[in-house]
Specification:
6-stranded mixed β-sheet; 4-stranded antiparallel β-sheet; 5 helices; elongated
Length: 259
């Protein structure tokens, strides 16, 4: 009996020692928030940036959202407990976003989410440490309590991302609007490849693009499935899918150019 007790105590000690004695996720900042585009409003993501090495144990941490009046809205998402991020350096990205964001930017999400960011006036926070959010960004006409994070940032618009440019604990000066630049923990960058309506990549939108685009229709239903990034411009209306509507969009783009 005594031997069993000793063994059990040793197991407990090993488990306790094996766990980090600190919260290895709380040196973290929200780097980007993207609220989608006019053609794909569901293409939303939150990109975090580590402020110290080893801050990648984000499993179980929630991405919470708030309405303009400060009331709680549905969570944007939650990091899986089993998530395994391989790059634990300081300054690396952690990317959580919707399937639509993956399809638009063709970048793997570290965490797929099914929620939505509140748009255009609201607040979004990451994680909880010592009963307080790790980082928050309020934006637009948010009128609730933003805690230590200052005044709201500029109101976001579709097609642009709220991007961190400083760290003064004042959202109003720490964030600006910029082109979306999603980046995951492996360092892969997402972008809208090619020129919409110019799938052959020549820089001119013409009849040759129609031939090229029709050929692409028979290759794939989604732009990310095309192996050649330059051919992803076949998604002329930038809705993540390659279909007959893109041929029509290219015609409409090409006609003024050839007039």
């Amino acid at each position: 009996m005594a031997k069993r007790l000793v063994v059990s105590l040793l197991v407990v000690v090993v488990l306790v020692v094996a766990r980090p004695a600190w919260a290895p996720f709380h040196f973290m900042a929200i780097q980007e928030l993207s609220f989608g585009t006019s053609t794909v409003p569901g293409a939303q993501y939150m990109q975090l940036r580590t402020l110290a090495a080893g801050q990648v144990f984000v499993g179980g941490q929630r991405m919470t959202t708030f309405n303009a009046d400060g009331s709680a809205a549905a969570n944007f998402g939650r990091y899986d407990m089993e998530i395994a991020l391989t790059n634990g350096d300081e300054g690396v990205a952690i990317l959580a976003g919707t399937q639509a964001a993956h399809d638009l930017y063709c970048v793997a999400m570290d965490q797929l989410v099914t929620g939505q960011l509140v748009f255009p006036d609201g607040r979004t926070c990451f994680g909880s440490f010592a009963s307080k959010p790790v980082d928050c960004v309020a934006y637009g006409s948010f009128a609730g309590d933003n805690g230590i994070f200052g005044q709201p940032a500029v109101r976001p618009i579709l097609g642009k991302a709220l991007t961190r440019v400083d760290s003064t604990n004042n959202n109003a000066t720490d964030f600006t609007l910029d082109d979306p630049a999603p980046k995951n923990n492996s360092g892969e960058m997402g972008q809208i490849d090619g020129t919409p309506g110019d799938p052959d990549g020549t820089g001119d939108i013409d009849v040759a693009d129609l031939d090229h685009e029709v050929a692409v229709l028979f290759e794939a239903g989604k732009r990310c499935d095309l192996e050649d990034p330059e051919r992803r411009g076949a998604d002329a209306n930038i809705d993540t899918r390659i279909n007959a509507a893109d041929v029509t969009a290219t015609i409409m783009i090409a006609l003024p150019a050839s007039a």
